[in-house]
User: Fold 2-dehydro-3-deoxygalactonokinase from Roseomonas alba.
Amino acid sequence: MIGIDWGTSRLRAYRMAPDGTVLGQREAQRGILTVLPGGFPDTLRAVTGDWIAEGETSIVMSGMVGSRQGWLEAPYLPCPAGLDGLAGAAILVPFPDAALSLLPGLSCRDRHGVPEVMRGEETQMLGAAPDRGEVTVCLPGSHSKWAQMLDGRVLGFATYLTGEAFAALSAHTILARMMDASAPHHAGGFARGLARARQGGGLLHHLFGLRALALFEEMQEEEAASYLSGLLIGHEVAAALEDGVAPPILLIGAETLTRHYATALDAFGIPHRTAGPDAAARGLWRVAERLP
Amino acid sequence: MIGIDWGTSRLRAYRMAPDGTVLGQREAQRGILTVLPGGFPDTLRAVTGDWIAEGETSIVMSGMVGSRQGWLEAPYLPCPAGLDGLAGAAILVPFPDAALSLLPGLSCRDRHGVPEVMRGEETQMLGAAPDRGEVTVCLPGSHSKWAQMLDGRVLGFATYLTGEAFAALSAHTILARMMDASAPHHAGGFARGLARARQGGGLLHHLFGLRALALFEEMQEEEAASYLSGLLIGHEVAAALEDGVAPPILLIGAETLTRHYATALDAFGIPHRTAGPDAAARGLWRVAERLP
Assistant:
């Protein structure tokens, strides 16, 4: 089978054996925002046409490809939901070359009734999380997700605009003058930002404090961006803990970013482990096993 | 005398009688960022030359004009500080046309040792606050200031990057797609944002919630920017209260913005009043009275 994790800015394709072994994988800068209307079938062919020609007859897709801006809109599946739920809610997409299934994303509401959504992360979570027991899954990113899982089902989750806030604040406020957002990671600055996040005063106050530290020459330019990153990630972790997420935390994501989150969790004294790569491939394969 | 409140983007000039009555006032879009090196004397002449020709011999300036990017750098005066302290720390600036005094800004450190600075707001606070008793002063803005004052002295203060965060987040994140940051104020959206800020979960989570509300058609485009404004101001007020600021609050600033902050304080049940206009003029005059 072929599994496709098709997001806003990127497409990842996996060819898998019947037992789930990943036989091949590809990444293309063909996120849904780069695809013109009606262009999804040809984009899929361009990335996976040779695998189909070699005999693959079944494709499963997850991610923003199922959003309003994607190929077809797959309505969100409300939590709690697991692999069986995703498989049951999959949409069969007209595609002459193979059987093409599109998975929904998940939705829930926080205790105050405000909605939450994800597309793609659910497949990674269900690929990486254990089938039994409680675990909190954290997927760091532009829109970081923290999900409570029990016995292989997502009970609920919360999203934090951390990555996007970093990009906007580091480039479009007075902080831009004192930092290079693309500077190498600075462990000392990151740790200072994490420590600051654990103090009172609120994020908006801490953002100005970064500016004032620089004015007083108590913040070097090379550590400022990492300080801001640590500050924002620290506020995210603090809010998630205040929201009641329980350890252990299972981190899923790109290696560098999950390592930074691991450092942040260590600073808070929270036990954690990091999932192996290809959680998405495993999730796609596990859902495919359950398709009707 | 002539009082000048010279900020980053704007210059306000006041001509005052010996008893402090404002005889005339002007505003020019000649903030320090618009002045070329060496251009400060001529800019001041352009705005106040006729008043000087008519016999004014004394000028007092406050604001970013005393920063490293201004006319001359006036080192920050540490808190606690009052009118006498500002007058004593004034710098005499070489200017052939009149006696020209430049006031310092104030600095302090929060309980964790992180520095805080202001330039110009101290003069407004000392112009508007009572000479006796305790009061918390709030000056809303790009960098909102909350100061504790006792018997006419600023004991300490905290800054929140609220206005700048609004500008950056509303224009440079996914939120930009769902709002018009220049839309008219929407009282209902603002109130919803304030209420959300009082719930747990943290600002970064609340920012994504705004996006999700729009996806579920539970947030209209015309209320989204006011919701974001209410959310950020609400987080600022909540953090200030958590930081221990005590009512009553004295609001100082532009009429529309102080009205929004008054609404926010009402939502939190915090008593407040709003200072009259020309706090800066009054502060400049009161310091001038005390110059050596």
Observations:
- The CA atoms of residues 92 and 101 of chain A lie 5 Å apart.
- The radius of gyration of chain A is 20 Å.
- DSSP finds nine helices and 15 strands in chain A.
